Amino acid sequence: MKILVVGSGGREHAMVWKLAQSPRKPILYCAPGNAGIASSATCIPIKSDDVAALKDFALQEKIDVTVIGPEAPLALGIVDEFRKARLRVFGPTRNAASPSTATGLRFKPTAATGRRMSSGSDSDAIRQGRGR
Q1: Are 85 and 62 in contact (CB under 8 A)?
Q2: In a domain, 28, yes or no
Q3: Which of 2, 45, 54, 59 is 20 to 30 A from 12, alpha carbon to alpha carbon?
Q4: What is the pLDDT of residues 100-121, one digit of tens each?
């Protein structure tokens, strides 16, 4: 099994480290990876936000599954692009990766909140805070 992990931070290092312990002995790639990851996976010099190059690599190498670590490629729609190319990928779609734009996921206070105030100076703010 060939697995591509996208990213270069501690989260991706932990994923690669754990995947390397699998009894199935997968062939691991990480793009772009880092020196620590290089001990468990082949690091590929493709930036994590270069969606087109990552997709081309996955197709060329016949990657079985891709795991996305960082938020940036998710927000760029890497999962959507991989799915269009019929590549297996683990991560949320562009819409799901951006809760502020996804319908129904906007913040709604569940309890009463304080009154909103604005002021032009520190002294006005203190006076408003004291209710004067």
Answers
A1: no
A2: yes
A3: 59
A4: 544 445 555 556 666 666 667 7
